[in-house]
Amino acid sequence: MRRIIPAMLLVAVLLYGMLTGCQGGTKLDPKNPVTITMWHNYGGQMQTTMDKLIDEFNVTVGRERGIILNVTSVTAMKEQEEKLAMIANGDPGAPQMPDLVTAYPKTAALLAAKGLLAPLEHQFTASELAEYIPQYIEEGRLSDDKLYVFPIAKSTEVLFVNQTLFDRFSAATGVSVESLATFEGIAAAAAKYYEWTDAETPDIPNDGKTFYTADSWSNIAQTGMAQMGSMFAGPDRLLTDTLSYKKIWDFCIPSALSGGFAVYNGYSSDLSKTGDIICSTGSTAGILFYGDTITYPDNTIEKVSYTILPYPTFEGGEKIALQRGAGMVIKKSTPEQEYAAAIFLKWFTSPDINMRFISSTGYLPVTKEANDENISQEIAAVDNINMKKLLEAAKRMYAEYSFIVAPNYAGFDAMNKDYEEQIRQTMYKGRQQVLTGTGINRLSEDLWADFIK
After folding, report:
1. What CATH number is given to the structural domain containing 33?
2. Measured torsion, CA atoms of residues 315, 321, 322, 324, in degrees rounded to the nearest 10
């Protein structure tokens, strides 16, 4: 006769097995709990949710297993990364490293090189790791191929479209929202939009409006070249003198010179809220900064709606997008401390808990189950219409796209920052030359020749 295990008992057994992992030999004593210190960089709504989840962990799994999680620092990521670099370098006055901390792979590499991080593979079974999205796990492996950075939440990039403004433009010109699926289609729409808006004031020349901008032009270069089967970054330089990159240039520069693309040092959501652009590419985590109104220069306010589309591709390219987001690392310590920290990570990234953490933030969960099932439940339940549209786009991208990560080797950040500054300066200065009568096509080629010297 087959035994029937009561449902609650079965759940308890499965959860215990999930949280035990490969460290069956490491024992914790609930009567003498281990205290785990933690730093993180989450603010606002995510900090509130994080605090609630940590409290919940401490009174449930933590109490049962003998773990107390104690958050000792909450700061912006830049400041936190600086403190971690001080620890890695052994600087005077460096704070004591916590047991758990959010970090990007580049900073984790500094800590691991000094022997300050615990590899994580032995804390998880192969079947447990298989529950996570493979690219997210691979991003956390460093040069020795060991897993140090564990994923807790990720973001990618999408196309935000002010549908209210676009509908007016579409009705007048016939441009469809479907054409925005490619970068070439965005450039063509930008040209038409500038001409259409410029023609509305025939007595004022060159006052057409910008259609599009990107939060990061370097992300377009990284992702676009990957879509075309090429690479943007080499070991010691950016590969901007290739034919693949020239296609990136021909998307970005002529449209900026002609006035169709906005050159702006802030976030694209700022321009969207004033009606200065119709669409932009940016992080899913930026959804919280898009409202449902436009405030015009004369202080009139218009109610608007947004459409959120998957990240565009270059014609003939693969569906590839950039994934971002810090993970958590565990300090190399005693077996008990490391084991206790890993128990929290398993609990925190389990599908239901992970969805509660990222719900209504624009971040994405890290397990296959959460992306396959929990996101659909969140779409049905969420009240914010922009968040609903974002999750629908993210779900589609999870099914159809491959994801890349930015290089984390020494020097890339500086090269990437220089590129972003140079490309924006080129766009702005070139636009000023066009306004004084210089031809766009010839100027773009001249600027290209100077850029790759």
Report:
1. 3.40.190.10
2. 160
